[in-house]
Amino acid sequence: MTLFFIGIGLDNEQDITVKGLNIVKNCKKVFLEAYTSKLNCDLKKLEELYGKKIIIANRDLVEKNPDQILDPTCDVAFLVIGDPLGATTHVDLMLRAKELNIQIKVIHNASIMNAIGSIGLELYKFGKTTSMPFFEPNFKAETPYLIIEQNNSIKAHTLVLLDIKMDQNRFMTVNQAIEQLLELEEKHQKGIFTEKTLCIGCARIGADDQIIKAGTAKELQEFDFGPELHSLIVPSQLHFMEEDALKIWSK
């Protein structure tokens, strides 16, 4: 029996690959990981196309109580928005399956990590990707600021993934991310991220209504990107073709 890790893309029920769809139709159990990302369609749309009842897998189920998923008696599909191995927690589930001698197979799909190529920046010029969590009264993560600084030192672009709290239906916006980075700049005073820093804000990449906007941090802070999901890119030194590409998104 096999545990299939199946990427279902970034937008809606139609983004699953033909290979992935055929596997889902033949699995006895189908789970949807529902805490690292969010599709632009509801569960019923998936179930109608896939012809299967889908079980929502929250973080507790996947990380603490995965026995339902790690079922050695039947084929199981574990659906992941984007690509299946974009989050460390899914690698952990894969390792647990191997310990139980459950066969695994991965069906890849588009993720934010490669879909940002649509912006026109060269993918191989990106450095470390970082995540921006919501600031809390007693904790303000400085890692995103430091990663931007490190990437800048090697002339690499930075992709900043923005916080998602599915249980609270709370999704960080480009505007909030910029506000937090400016607050960190105010603290460190290194000139790493100021109101004049060139940024690219992205919303709903891969969807028909995706938004890509390039401009200074101040300009993007005042721009309405609409509903989730958002991400932020802080480019470093640009090639002239990258400069031309960003002119498209700065209008």
Task: Please supply descriptive tags for the structure shown above.
2 domains, Cobalt-precorrin-4 Transmethylase, domain 1, alpha/beta, Methyltransferase, Cobalt-precorrin-4 Transmethylase, Domain 2
Percent helix range: 25-40%
Order of helices and strands: EHEHEHEHEHEHEEEHEEHEH
How far the N terminus sits from the C terminus, by CA atoms, comes to 53 Å
**Overall pLDDT confidence:** 96
In terms of per-residue confidence, which ranges show pLDDT below 50 for 5 or more consecutive residues?
none
Number of strands: 12
Look up the CATH topology of the largest domain.
Methyltransferase, Cobalt-precorrin-4 Transmethylase, Domain 2
Biggest sheet details: 5 strands, parallel
Total helices: the number is 9
Structural class of the helix and strand makeup?
alpha/beta
Shape: elongated
Question: How large a portion of the residues is in β-strands, by DSSP E?
Answer: 15-25%
CATH homology group of the largest domain: Tetrapyrrole methylase, C-terminal domain
Which architecture of the largest domain would the CATH scheme give at its second level? 2-Layer Sandwich
Q: Structurally, how many domains make up the residues?
A: 2
CA-based gyration radius: 19 Å
CATH class of the largest domain: Alpha Beta
Q: Tell me the strand order in the biggest sheet.
A: 3-2-4-1-5
